[in-house]
Amino acid sequence: MNSIRIFSTLLLALLASVTRTIAADPASTASPGTPPAREFAAVEQFLHLSDAELDEIARVVERIRAMTPEQRATLAKEIAAFRAMPEPQRRHLRQGWGQVSDELRDGWRAMMQAATPERHAEIRAKLQSLPPEERAAYRQRLVEEFLAQRHPPAATSREK
């Protein structure tokens, strides 16, 4: 339900922007390269996505909204650096993730956000030293340890 509300809000904001642009300059819709045409193209792309893909987009939007301006700038730089890499290097970086659960992905993100720069470097070095087939198990073990420390199991009445 929340993702539908986020998507609806995004769609309404996008359509309001298009409406303002058309009202300000009706001729701006005449050529296909103008902003309204691009905005409608984006909406049209959303119409062809599955519910699961739309849910993922909504989760991404939520995570972006939760970021500080500094985190957004850092992420933008990391994306630009990733895009600048040759495809073989990008493919190599993608290896080892495969299809991971939302819990693991969210746990990894929380763990890395909580980590110090030194811990980041340590984890990165370890991952780079492992063969791709061992990276997923290492990531999972780190996340499980992090989550166990973050949310220790509650004591049962017999342990009290």
Would you give an account of this structure?
- The protein is mostly helical.
- It has 2 domains: 1-66, no CATH class; 97-154, no CATH class.
- 76% of the residues lie in helices and 0% in strands.
- It contains 8 helices and no strands.
- α1 (2-24) packs antiparallel against α2 (35-47).
- The longest helix has 23 residues, at 2-24.
- It is globular and about 50 Å long.
- The relative contact order is 0.06.
List the helices and strands and how they pair.
Layout: H1 2-24, H2 35-47, H3 51-66, H4 69-84, H5 87-94, H6 102-114, H7 117-129, H8 132-150
Helix pairs in contact: 1-2, 1-3, 6-8
How many structurally independent domains?
2
Shape by Cα distribution:
globular
Query: From the alpha-carbon coordinates, what is the Rg to the nearest angstrom?
Result: 21 Å
How many DSSP E strands? 0
* Terminal residue distance: 40 Å
Which range best describes the helical content: under 10%, 10-25%, 25-40%, 40-55%, 55-70% or over 70%? over 70%
Strand percentage: under 5%
Let me know the average pLDDT: 75
Note the total helix count. 8
Strand and helix order: HHHHHHHH
The secondary-structure class comes to: mainly alpha
| Largest beta-sheet details | none
**Low-pLDDT runs:** 18-23, 25-30
Would you summarize the structure shown here?
This protein has 160 residues and is an all-alpha fold.
